[in-house]
């Protein structure tokens, strides 16, 4: 374990001293990362820096955090971002229902007159509800947890500004209790589907990597690894068809997740190769918007059948 110039200790898995070692470990956990991505993950772990992953939905950003939690044998703590999220959903909030019961109990036992004591009791750790960020800071264990801050682009500017403090010091101040600081900073992974631009200040706190859709051969390899029941020819046909769908002007082009969904659906139906009838029957596995399905149908299902070379 190493300590960097920012004072943070790295969190490399045992037996991993190079990015190639980590790439191998990722593969052992069914995640195929190219050299660029595996290097970015390796550096984030070694330097104790948050990792910011950007890319289209379904390319495997969230899966990076899930796989890291398995490799490091540590909990995955997930904060799903959305419009309007604030500190109370992300860090902590007081359990008002339990506080009210405490007040009533104090009154019932004749302690209500000691107002100062009752108020002091209301704001102790017993009545605090920990949300994901506080859970990550307070985690106790042999390894730091993996903190996944998912789809940060859905949050607003104010929440982004708050995250700057968290990612700088991995500490948060609770007015009634004081400052909570992580003994060992969590392994932080932030993801963005780029529905809006995230501020440069937040990106500067992180190591950055943009995950592209995989090449045809890599996508075939992913299908074969994650859906081993799919025969080679079917895996290649599915990957080729998805590659063609991505060239269409779709509202939501399919990602790797949809490729795997489609392959699993075809295997479940006992398919050995793709044909027009199967494409029409299972299109909902790969295209999740009606308008996109109509566009694919108007282009002709024959265009999606018979591929296998990626061309």
Structure in words:
The chain folds into three domains: 19-84 and 142-210, Rossmann fold, CATH 3.40.50.300; 92-126, no CATH class; 216-304. Helices cover 45% and strands 12% of the residues. The protein has helices at 19-28, 35-47, 61-71, 87-90, 96-108, 115-122, 132-138, 157-169, 200-204, 216-226, 232-247, 256-268, 276-282, 290-299; strands at 51-54, 76-80, 92-94, 128-130, 146-150, 171-174, 178-181, 187-192, 207-210. The strands form three sheets. It has a five-stranded parallel sheet with strand order 2-5-8-1-9, with helices on both faces. The radius of gyration is 24 Å and the shape is elongated. The two termini are 46 Å apart. The mean pLDDT is 90.
Task: Indicate the CATH class of the largest domain.
Answer: Alpha Beta
The CATH architecture of the largest domain is 3-Layer(aba) Sandwich
Number of strands: 9
* Overall mean confidence score, pLDDT: 90
DSSP helical segment count: 14
Order of helices and strands: HHEHEHEHHEHEHEEEHEHHHHH
Please report which band the strand proportion falls in: under 5%, 5-15%, 15-25%, 25-35%, 35-45% or over 45%: 5-15%
Q: List unreliable stretches of 5+ residues.
A: none
Proportion in helices: 40-55%
The major beta sheet can be summarized as:
5 strands, parallel
Largest sheet: spatial strand order? 2-5-8-1-9
Q: Structural class, judged by helices and strands?
A: alpha/beta
Coarse shape: elongated
According to CATH, the fold-level topology of the largest domain is: Rossmann fold
Write out the CATH superfamily name of the largest domain.
Answer: P-loop containing nucleotide triphosphate hydrolases
Report the C-alpha radius of gyration, rounded.
24 Å
Distance between the termini: 46 Å
Instruction: Compute the number of structural domains.
Output: 3
